Every structure is written in C-alpha cells, then in structure tokens.
Amino acid sequence: VKQQANLPAASRRFSNVAKLVINQMQAELDAGRGKSVYRTYISVLNNTLIPYFGRMNVDTITPQVMTQFEQWREQKTNKPIPASTITNHNTMLNKVFEVAVQHGWASREKLPTLTNKGRKSDVRPTFSLPEYRRLVQRLRHWHKNGRTERTRQMRELLRDYVLILANTGMRHGTEAQNLRWKHVTVFEDNGLEYVEFYLHGKTKPHDAIGRAGTIDYLKRIHSRTEAIKHIDFYDMLKQKLDLPVFCLP
Q1: Which helix (H) or strand (E) holds 209?
Q2: Lateral strand order in the sheet of 184-189
Q3: How confident is the model at residue 4 (pLDDT cuts 50, 70, 90)?
Q4: Are 61 and 112 in contact (CB under 8 A)?
Q5: What pLDDT score was predicted for residue 3?
Q6: Burial class (CB in 10 A: 0-12, 13-18, 19+), 245
C-alpha cells in the first residue's frame, strides 16, 4: 500500500510504473520469497526498458513504438539478439502493462501484443559416455599438477563438482551455488547409501536423488572444509548447517 501511495494516481509514465514493478520484486527478494531471475528482470528494467520508454506514458506504447524500439535495440547491440534476451524484455514489458491496466492507467485492448523473433540459442552438446569417462579419469590426477596450493584446491573441488552434478542432474549455476549442507539428506535402501538434495535455482524448488556413490564425493568435500571437517560427517548433516557445499577449504 505504501509503495502504491508513492506513485501519483494520475501518472501513466512508464518509468513510474516500472519502478513500482521493481519495488515489488525487490521486496520479495528481500523477504526471501523472490525468484533469482528477479535480479535479471530488475536489470532489464533499469538498463534497457526505462532508458528507452521511461518518459512515455504506458498508454501511448503502440505497435509502431514497439517496432521503433526493436530497431533501436538491434542498432544498440549491433548483432542478432538472442531469443532469451527478448523473452526477458517482453516479460517485463507485459508486467508493466499488467500493473498499468490494474491501476486504470492503460487499456489492455490498446496495448501491443509482443512477439519474439530473436535468434535461438545454440544447444550445448552433451558429453558422450567415452568423453565423460575420459574427463573423470583426467580429473583424478589433474589437481596434482596445479602450480599453487589454491589452484590445486580449485581443481580438487572441480572434480567433485563435476561428479556430483553428473550423478544427480543438478544444474550448474544457481542450483549448485545455492546448495547448503542443510539441503543434504542421507538415506539407506537395500544396503546402499543414497543422498537426497533439495535444490532451488531458476526453476521451482525440487528434490534430486544422487546415484549410489555420490556420498563419497560429498565426504571428500567435507574432509577438506576447515569449518566442519572436525565434525563427524553424519553428525554434521544432522545439524542442518547453512554453509555452502561447494567451497574452497
């Protein structure tokens, strides 16, 4: 309510509506409820959409205006724009339109329908099984050749990082970065130990089960981490510590 009160009721300026959207997303991030992609959306509004549309009233953004924006965007980057970038732009434009319509500052019927003709991203090739086996075999000894202690530590961590991601389906980036020891649970089935991970990143939170043996990679990281290596591995998991799994000693 306070955020809405700060915005003049008669204002239809894009920058004002966009700042209201930013405030809403930032409030959710601050409360721990916001999606990690909100940071990207806030950057899109601040760095691209507000600089271009900021002084316009939302209800004056027509298909012709959008065509001019698309031409400006292409000239600014001087290269084909990825479809993912245009998706982010369209998502935030539609959000601004939605808020403007909700407050009576624009009519949905008069606002443009957004399309995406951007360049599709190249699909990353997968590893073949022989390539994966070669990678794992090389990682086994690669860390010993590091010139400095820090390099050796990073290579040791990379080995376990690769093995854990490959054996769980965990996404690199935010899912791995957000993983804490409190998100790790060990259970037994038919005499084998398995690990369950609670993951959250760009997609909604979900669980992942590691293949048998994944626990060994976690134990290696635990044995190198100064803050917890003095605690028994299983006792440490029971403490549900808010410490990152993937970290240097």
Answers
A1: strand 206-210
A2: 184-189, 192-199, 206-210
A3: very low
A4: yes
A5: 45
A6: buried
Span 114-124, mean pLDDT?
67
What is the rounded CA–CA span in Å between residue 73 and residue 91?
16
The 8-class DSSP code of residue 172 comes to: T
| Residues 129-138 pLDDT 10s | 899 999 999 9
| pLDDT for 81 | 84
pTM to 2 decimal places: 0.55
Q: What is the CA radius of gyration of the chain?
A: 24
Q: Are 163 and 136 in contact (CB under 8 A)?
A: yes
**20 and 92 in contact (C-beta within 8 Å)?**
no
CA proximity to 47, closest of 76, 7, 8, 84: 76
Q: Looking at residue 131, what is its pLDDT?
A: 92
In a 10 Å sphere around its CB, with 0-12 CB exposed, 13-18 middle and 19+ buried, how is residue 163 labelled? Answer: buried
